[in-house]
C-alpha cells in the first residue's frame, strides 16, 4: 500500500516541488491560470484546443533564463510572471494581432518553493486577463542536477481578426516612423537595481513589470501601418530590423524623440543626473519596455496612442540615422554601450 505524501502548509520551507510532487504542483499552478476566451479545450488533456475565427494563428516564443532575464532577489514571482507574459504578448501585438493563449514550459530545481511557482502563474494570468487570454497548457520539468536556475519558456498564440499581418518588411520611403508606449524606463530601472538601489520606484517597477501598449498593435494595423516591431532589444536595434528588412533608412528626429520620451522631465532625468548618464542613451538603446515602433504612409492620420518620431528615407544603404547622422555617432555621443542588446554579442 502506497503511503500518501505528508501535507505541507503553504509557505513552509519544506513546501517545495520535490515534496509536493509534479502533478500536485501543476494543479496548484493551473488554479491560477484563468480562462482563455478562445479555448475550446483548456488545460488537462494532452493538448489544448483553441478556436481560430481568423483561420490563421500568430505564434511567438521567448525564453527567460534566471540571472540573465530576471533575478529572484530583484523581482517577485508575480513580477516575473508579468514580464514573461508581456514579452510574448507584445510580439503578437506587433504583428497587428490580439493574443489568445499562452503555453508555458518551466524547468526548475527540486528545491523551488511551490508558492513561488504559484506567484509566477498568478503574474502570467494577470497580464493575460485584460486581453481575454490565459495559460492553456505547458510542461514542468526538473532542472539539471547541478543547476539552481529557473528557465521559463513562453509561447504566445494570437488572432489577426481578419487583418493582414504587419511585417517588418513593408516600410517605404516617405513613411512616418511612429512610437507607441514608452522607452528607456526598463533600462533606467536596471541601472538603478545594478547599483543596489530600489528607487525611484517608477523606473524599478517598469523594469520588473513592463507595460506594453497592446491595443496599439491592432490599432496600427487597422490604420494601415506598413511595418511594425516590438522594441525589446532597443529602439536602434529593433527599428534597424525594419530598415534592413524593408531596404530603407529610418531617420529619427531627435527633438521629436525627446518630446515623446523625455518630456516633461521625470525619473529618467533624475536618475541620469545622479549617475552621470544621458537619459537619451536609455531611450535609444534600452530594451524590455516592449513599446511598439511602426511606419505609416505620410498622409495617414496616426491612430490614438501613436507619436511621430522620424521619417523613412531611401538610401544606398539600410539602417537607422538620427537627424541624418549615423546612429553609431549619436550612441557614442550620449555614452551608450552599443546600439542595443545582442545575445552572444
Automatic annotation (TrEMBL):
Ligand binding (Mg(2+) 4): 46, 60, 91
Recorded catalytic activity of this chain's protein: thiamine phosphate + ATP = thiamine diphosphate + ADP
Segments forming domain PurM-like N-terminal: 44-158
Binding of Mg(2+) 5, residues: 233
Residues where Mg(2+) 3 binds: 46, 91, 230
Record keywords: ATP-binding, Kinase, Magnesium, Metal-binding, Nucleotide-binding, Thiamine biosynthesis, Transferase
GO molecular function per UniProt: ATP binding; magnesium ion binding; thiamine-phosphate kinase activity
This enzyme's EC code(s): 2.7.4.16
Pathway assigned in UniProt: Cofactor biosynthesis; thiamine diphosphate biosynthesis; thiamine diphosphate from thiamine phosphate: step 1/1
Keyword Magnesium: yes
Any single Pfam family the record assigns to this protein: AIRS
Residues bound to substrate: 69, 288
Superkingdom as given in the UniProt entry: Bacteria
Gene Ontology annotations of biological process type: thiamine biosynthetic process; thiamine diphosphate biosynthetic process
Binding residues annotated for Mg(2+) 1, in chain numbering: 61-62, 139
Miscellaneous comment in the UniProt entry for this protein: Reaction mechanism of ThiL seems to utilize a direct, inline transfer of the gamma-phosphate of ATP to TMP rather than a phosphorylated enzyme intermediate.
Stated role: Catalyzes the ATP-dependent phosphorylation of thiamine-monophosphate (TMP) to form thiamine-pyrophosphate (TPP), the active form of vitamin B1.
Protein family membership: Belongs to the thiamine-monophosphate kinase family.
Name of the featured protein: Thiamine-monophosphate kinase
Gene: thiL
